[in-house]
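Task card 7
Instruction: Convert sequence to structure tokens.
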Amino acid sequence: MAHGILMAVLLFALMLPVIAASAWYAKRRYARAVSRLQADDPPLGRSVGHADAACTDPIVSGAIPPSLSLAIQRSDSVHEANAVSENAQRLRRHVLLVQFGSASVYWWLVLVLMAAHAILGSGGNVDTLLIIPWFVGPTIVLLFVVPPAVAWVLQAGVSRTLMNLTVSGVVLVASALMLNASHWDSMDGLGFVFGYCTIAIVASAFMRPSFRGAGVPLAAAGGVAVLVLAAMAALIVVLDDSPADVDLSNAELVAGTIFLLTLLAVAAGCGWLTLRLIAKGYAAKRFSDLQFTVATYWVLVTAFALGSVARDAGSSTLFLVYPERPRTWPSVLEPFLPALFIAGIVITWLAFRGLQSAALARLVRRVPPRGSTLLFLRVFKHSNRSETFMDRFLGYWRFAGSVWMVAGPDLAGAYMEPNEFFDYITGRLRDHFVARPDEARPRVDRMDTGRDPDGRFRVNEVYCTSDSWRPTVLLMIERADAVLLDLREYTARRAGTRYELTELLRSRALHKSVILIDQNDDVSRLSQEIDALAREVAARGMDDRDAPSVRILTFGKGTDAEMRGLFHAVAQAAGSRRMNPGPQ
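Output:
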């Protein structure tokens, strides 16, 4: 059992770079497929439905528009909270506290089990407790704080870059070498450093939203495939009693090759079945994308702990080297120590997952099942900037409500969900597209607006063709509780964004809208363009009491204060929609 687990951990560690590269490749291919389908005309030709006719209504000219009131302020100066933001922030704090607290307790218990195995594996001598002074300073931070902290950072919506993980990796290596300074060139010390550095690298990849959609399901499926293969190999080794030095005939070599290929096919089939089950479980809302990501991360950390326990029944589990100790335990117990501690870690893992899920379910039962819907309209930017901004902002907003947006080249694949990834690799990506204008309303009606088991709402990307995006956007503007229009990098040549801004004015949706601009943008030029658009559309039947107020926020480097201010502003817009629903 122990050797099978160790072999599985080593094989999976070797597969991690391949999984990361496959996820990166799948994301790029997925983005290209989305862009290609968006540019294609629907297969049945153009058909103009009711919604499409609405978007081609002639602009009313000649009417005098009401004067625009531009409210411009910095994002980090918005501090006013309302019911939407207060409830979301409270739930966010509680969820993150439950997740960090339960993960910390779990990991500390695992470390206790590993230390206990180290003591018993060295003979049960109390002198082994002298290892404790080594856990002072950076090593305590490394072992006891870093794993739960990384799991918290993965979902908290705080600023994070690869440099943070690089620094953590440097601290990790320095701590490991300090811990084992007299044996820095030993395989034990190198194993310690390699294991945790691998986990840090994988965690840095998981931090990218674009990796989560494909990388995490692939990591889970690959882990299952490796575990099955290792289990079958270990079983064969146990049952095989043939001598090792016997020459094999050609027929036996062919039979052995066929048998090996069969084992690989069985393992690959189990991995494929895992992908399918993940897609079905996500579609059934049994877990959120972030829940699945963090759970996979903890499986990696736990696998490393299991591998360290399983690697050698007679040596330390913490990759430390000790002087030889007289063994005081009966020799009959020694072979069972790894299995007992492996079982203890597995039981602790199951208890941790069960208790955490129960605590989250209790929190979610206390909040309304529905939230506010946010329509995110934007100027398409470089994908890295868009992903970083959205991932941090959604770390706050997803506790308040769901997100709607039209898929574009900047975020194509960034929020690919496990079921969408499975449909992509099985050739059913077109099923997610609004191919014709008359399909817009049913698709918007099916938007997911319910909470996941961890209290978060989902990101709904709508895939549109060149024929259907206008009526789809119109319906989403009408249905959304709040609209965030990101005009950073906007120019007059951005015809799609100009159309969306025009429709916000036409539909009198400005009371529930927030316009985001860069702090270095020319505010006067933008104000003139908005005023010109208002004069063009001149909304019908508006009087002075309907004079629109345009709320514009300036955004800088994306500090935490700016993110929180933007969240408060959008929550206020959603609250104003509920108080002033406007024309329907």
